[in-house]
Backbone:
């Protein structure tokens, strides 16, 4: 058995550490850095793509049912409306706020808000019907300050501004495209079926035979990161990685 | 009958707390028959010491506000906000008043297995035990009982505390309370010996154990080792954070007082603050020059005996605050580490302090110093 030993410090070193700890305590008691958001009176600034309460716009819905299909928690059920269309209802008792439904919504009928503080009286009330999803829920705003956490070179700083945050997101910022390329993670398992070479539209994959051994090569400059080869590879040894 | 009253009045008048600023008011009130008797009774030095300072009133005010100061200060150091919801514009100053009200209206639950008489008695008796040591401490020139064995008596009464805590644990009849009591007993033996030796060192150094006769010298300069030992011992005795071993919240719930609720819990909750207050007063008397302070022209003349009390309380506040800040700096020791510190390093340091004092006294007598 191995015994973990503490690094032995001299008395002077220890005294220095104690003095430093006491110094920090004294400094913080005079000029404290507070990290607490006093919630009902202050609100933390949330990003525009915050995963909060979901709003629904029936005019934009095309009845594709994608949201209900993709929901991993089975929180979304489609209910028939009087106009014979099917609209989603969300059970917030089940919802895990992954927002796959909003990502999968083709015409932007579902959209996110920054509301995260809705209270229900019982479990039945948590099943939110379509007509309740059109209008945002009634919430009491007590906040007068907006809190932002800023990380400067050394410490976490709290910036408080006297304004009221808009909880509704009008336009979700487009997601940033991360350039990816295809890469072979296990060359020894390649069976040389050439599927990747055939399927590649940009001609980034080439093959060569040397000494009776098949060698596949991917040109990272030409690869567009479409992922077709990854999908088609019979041995599943191709992978999309960050450029 | 008249003679007895006159004799009593004479005794009281000969030993009054003198405060020149309010003397006209006292003289005016003395014209009213019963009022004068009452006021001179309260200003009679022993009664003043017992009821006002350093006794009941001061202790009560400290108990009301020191938990708030501790919470607020620790919160600031730990980047939190601390109590704030009750009277926000005062920063939640009367938080403990609200807590007390809540404790008062809460039911005191005595569970089935508890030893009912002791379970209730010890909670309330422990509060009385906290007041007794204050009889022998002096704030400036104000003291209730000036005894040549004052400091020894005070130490003996301070040592009553752990007995009550052990009693609480035993009467609770719960496994957490048992473990907490045993830990308390272990810690008690670990800190008591170096603590007493540190006080003994100062008694030898000053040559007297009558607190009122202790010269206004700063013992922390004369014997810093004894001061350090005393401070660490006091932190252990009050089970403050680095030595919060008996009440370790995460391991044994709340130690000896896990079963208590309502006002009984409230009394036990403030017990460690009482102990901190008493040990801080002792620290001020032994190491920080008691009620002595620089002469402020104009103020000292007007305040009279009150000036010593003001200096004394200021020093007590500083010592108590230092004691409370410890919990933000250090994590808790394990029981075995606490015992190692108590029986090992602390005893060694306290013996060094004792030797220091003896050498100091010899050098003083030899005329070297």
Residues:
């Amino acid at each position: 058995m191995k015994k973990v030993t503490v690094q032995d410090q001299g008395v002077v070193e220890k005294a220095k550490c104690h003095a430093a700890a006491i110094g920090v305590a004294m400094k913080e008691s005079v000029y404290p850095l507070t990290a607490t958001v006093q919630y009902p009176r202050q609100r933390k600034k949330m990003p525009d793509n915050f995963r909060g309460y979901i709003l629904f716009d029936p005019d934009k819905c095309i009845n594709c049912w994608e949201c209900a299909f993709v929901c991993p928690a089975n929180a979304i059920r489609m209910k028939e409306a009087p106009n014979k269309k099917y609209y989603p209802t969300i059970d917030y008792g089940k919802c895990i706020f992954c927002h796959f439904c909003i990502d999968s919504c083709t015409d932007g009928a579902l959209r996110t808000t920054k509301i995260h503080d809705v209270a229900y009286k019982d479990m039945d009330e948590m099943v939110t019907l379509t007509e309740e999803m059109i209008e945002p829920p009634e919430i009491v705003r007590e906040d007068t300050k907006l809190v932002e956490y800023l990380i400067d070179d050394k410490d976490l700083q709290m910036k408080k501004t006297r304004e009221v945050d808009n909880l509704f997101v009008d336009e979700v910022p487009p997601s940033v495209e991360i350039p990816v390329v295809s890469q072979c993670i296990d060359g020894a398992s390649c069976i040389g079926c050439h599927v990747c070479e055939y399927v590649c539209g940009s001609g980034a994959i080439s093959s060569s035979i040397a000494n009776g051994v098949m060698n596949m090569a991917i040109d990272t400059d030409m690869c567009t990161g479409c992922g077709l080869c990854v999908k088609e590879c019979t041995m599943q040894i191709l992978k999309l990685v960050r450029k | 009958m008249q003679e007895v009253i006159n004799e009593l009045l004479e005794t009281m008048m000969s030993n009054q707390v003198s405060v020149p600023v309010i003397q006209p008011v006292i003289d005016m009130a003395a014209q009213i028959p019963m009022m004068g008797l009452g006021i001179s009774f309260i200003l009679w030095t022993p009664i003043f010491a017992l009821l006002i300072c350093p006794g009941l009133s001061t202790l009560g005010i400290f108990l009301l506000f020191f938990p708030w100061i501790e919470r607020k200060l620790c919160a600031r150091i730990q980047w939190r906000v601390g109590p704030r919801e009750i009277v926000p514009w005062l920063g939640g100053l009367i938080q403990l008043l609200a807590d007390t009200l809540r404790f008062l209206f809460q039911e005191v639950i005595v569970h089935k297995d508890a030893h009912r008489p002791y379970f209730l008695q010890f909670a309330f008796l422990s509060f009385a035990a906290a007041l007794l040591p204050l009889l022998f401490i002096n704030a400036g020139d104000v003291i209730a009982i000036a005894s040549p064995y004052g400091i020894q008596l005070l130490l003996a009464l301070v040592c009553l505390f752990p007995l009550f805590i052990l009693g609480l644990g035993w009467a609770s009849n719960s496994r957490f309370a048992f473990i907490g009591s045993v830990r308390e007993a272990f810690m008690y033996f670990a800190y008591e010996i170096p603590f007493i030796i540190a006080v003994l060192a100062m008694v030898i150094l000053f040559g007297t154990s009558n607190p009122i006769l202790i010269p206004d010298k700063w013992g922390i300069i004369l014997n810093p080792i004894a001061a350090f030992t005393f401070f660490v011992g006091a932190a252990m005795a009050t089970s403050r954070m680095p030595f919060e071993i008996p009440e370790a919240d995460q391991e044994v719930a709340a130690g000896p007082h896990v079963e208590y609720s309502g006002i009984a819990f409230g009394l036990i909750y403030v017990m460690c603050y009482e102990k901190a207050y008493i040990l801080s007063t002792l620290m001020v008397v032994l190491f920080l020059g008691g009620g002595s302070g620089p002469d402020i022209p104009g103020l000292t003349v007007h305040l009279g005996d009150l000036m010593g009390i003001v200096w004394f309380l200021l020093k007590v506040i500083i010592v108590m605050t230092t004691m409370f800040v410890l919990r933000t700096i250090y994590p808790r020791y394990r029981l075995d580490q606490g015992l190692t510190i108590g029986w090992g390093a602390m005893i060694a340091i306290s013996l060094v302090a004792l030797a220091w004092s003896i050498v100091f006294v010899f050098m003083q007598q030899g005329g070297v110093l």
